[in-house]
Write a structure and sequence with these properties.
3-stranded antiparallel beta sheet, 5% strand
């Protein structure tokens, strides 16, 4: 295998804003990459690992990193292995994979609409998944798998309604956002009514779950959820090139050979699937899908939204938020409470920033 790296100078007449592009030849194929984006993504991956290790070591039974490492060996005592492997690791792994799912889903919708305010939270898909899950919980008293199926059906149904309302000779970003906001408002009212009319015990469970929480995460939930997330992420990454071409506009993408409506619909379905998996396991966790893509874009200084970078930033944000909710506050809170505070501050900053750009 032949590998060789060369720096790619900026084209004549173009301005190089401190970015350095490289090409690497692998098996006779030249791959072009941005050194800063690669370095930033590597740094985010390191942060994810560091936060995950801190989550495994912290708690009422504190451990050193050496003890955490030995918990995976046969020489470890049973209690330490139980604490690390059975109690803490499912939650830490869920925070990473679910955060990646939320970040990737938000990146897809912001790329499709070319709007930094577009996310499954805003477009109503999270509310649809929540509606499907809460109907199964309150009306049918379903188990975890049934709730997961209800969340998937609810998310897909809300996506279908938003897509049909926004479709007029094609789907434009502005119409998609307006239709999504309207559907989200109606579904939120329906969710409130379902909770108020349920019996007290079921309503309390639904309310706690509806705040978005990783409490009590088991290997069954984390294992099934992570497997589904990785499968959907792989399918989404396989469509990363057509997604970039769609950012150029429908006419340009079609000229490049992209089946515009078909590709857009498949990407929306994959993103809704990612949201539905997370919602089924942990409830609706807000604002990660909104904030992660734009924060990742600013960290990597890329021209557009990158799905891999957004997934890594989503994993960082949710892992850090869960650590704060579990260890940094006087009382343990649902992680959704922390993400709402972080996301609300980010949304205010984004609105102010966009308003200043228009002046």
């Amino acid at each position: 295998m032949s590998t060789r790296s060369t720096a790619v100078p900026p084209a004549t007449g173009q301005i190089d804003f401190g970015r350095r592009m490289y090409r690497r030849r692998v098996c006779g194929i030249w791959l072009r990459f941005d050194a800063r984006a690669v370095a930033a993504s590597a740094a985010m991956a390191v942060y994810v690992v560091a936060i995950g290790l801190a989550a495994l070591a912290s708690g009422d039974y504190p451990l050193t990193l050496t003890e955490v490492w030995h918990a995976f060996s046969a020489s470890s005592d049973d209690f330490t292995r139980t604490v690390v492997v059975d109690w803490r690791m499912p939650r830490a792994l869920a925070a990473i994979t679910f955060g990646a799912a939320l970040g990737a889903s938000g990146a897809v919708f912001q790329s499709l609409t070319r709007n930094p305010l577009a996310s499954p939270d805003i477009l109503g898909f999270s509310a649809g998944a929540y509606t499907g899950a809460i109907v199964v919980m309150i009306v049918f008293h379903g188990n975890y798998l049934q709730v997961a199926l209800g969340a998937l059906v609810g998310g897909l149904a809300s996506a279908a309604v938003v897509y049909l309302l926004a479709f007029k000779g094609g789907v434009q970003g502005f119409r998609l956002i307006i239709a999504g906001i309207a559907v989200s408002a109606m579904l939120s009212s329906l969710n409130t009514w379902l909770t108020l009319t349920a019996d007290l015990d079921t309503a309390l469970v639904a309310a706690v779950w509806g705040a978005g929480s990783l409490n009590g995460m088991t290997w069954e939930q984390t294992g099934v959820g992570s497997l589904l997330v990785l499968t959907l992420l792989a399918a989404t990454l396989a469509l990363a090139r057509p997604l970039k071409q769609l950012e150029l506009g429908d006419d340009a993408a079609q000229a490049l050979g992209v089946r515009v409506e078909r590709t857009r619909l498949v990407l929306m379905l994959l993103s809704v699937g990612l949201i539905a998996v997370v919602t089924a396991a942990a409830g609706p966790i807000s604002f990660i899908a909104l904030a992660a893509p734009q924060i990742a874009r600013r960290v990597t200084r890329s021209a557009g939204v990158s799905v891999p970078a957004a997934a890594l930033m989503g994993a960082v944000l949710l892992s850090a938020s869960d650590y704060v909710a579990l260890h940094a506050l006087p009382a343990m809170l649902p992680v959704g409470t922390v993400t709402v505070v972080i996301g609300g501050g980010y949304l205010i900053w984004l609105l102010v920033h966009e308003a200043r750009k228009r002046l």
